[in-house]
Amino acid sequence: VGADCVVTLEVHNPAAFGNAFRCRAVALTTTPLFIDYAKAHLAGEDLAVISPDAGGMKRAELLREALEAAIGKPVGKGLAEKYRSAGIVSGDLFVGNVGGRTALIVDDLISTGGTLLRAAKSARAAGATRVLALVTHGLFMPGAEDVLNDPALDQVIVTDAVPSFRLKKPSNKLVTLPCAPLLAEAIRRLHENRNLTDLFVF
User: Fold this and answer.
1) Which of 23, 31, 185, 188 has most Cβ atoms within 10 angstroms of its Cβ?
2) What does pTM read for this prediction?
3) SS3 label, residue 39
4) Which tens digits make up the pLDDT trace of 179-189?
5) CA 126 to CA 120: how far, in whole Å?
6) What is the predicted pLDDT for the residue at 13?
7) Could you give the CA distance from residue 141 to residue 118 in angstroms, rounded to a whole number?
8) 3 state SS of 40
9) pLDDT greater than 60 at residue 85
10) For residue 31, which of 147, 124, 159, 184 has the smallest C-alpha distance?
11) C-alpha span between 46 and 70 (Å, rounded)
12) Is 98 helix (H, G, I), strand (E, B) or coil?
């Protein structure tokens, strides 16, 4: 269609995205937004970054390493099991060091929230004192409101990349971060032929 570059935010499969176009493709992450939020609101807390399934381990580890560098102290990590068979998701195993820490569950999207809630309950059972979700795309399909209201989750932080219009009632647990400044900075640098490396945070 004549585009010189395709820019997107937190793609599910970066390798597939990078091979999908015949022009430049830039896959931004929301890691800078979540790190800024953690520095502003979670200062002084002992933190651990959790992946809600094996597929998200790389995403979670990249954020954990960047967060550790940003706050200057160790950040724990964990992994919640997720097993899908015949369309049914199960799994309640958890590995990681979250005892006495604020657990940050990192994912690219929330649909119904079932995976997120399973990970939150597992982190609680493993000793996490608080559980926050850091999720880029809040789709909030039917059932997600019940997840937001569950006591296992203290807060859900999303971006405004997808408007939360499906939520019938606003939740005081929901925090929405604007992604426009990140996208605008990427567009400006592309226009000026400047480096984008630090926007990826990894």
Assistant:
1) 31
2) 0.90
3) helix
4) 999 999 999 99
5) 10
6) 83
7) 16
8) helix
9) no
10) 159
11) 14
12) coil
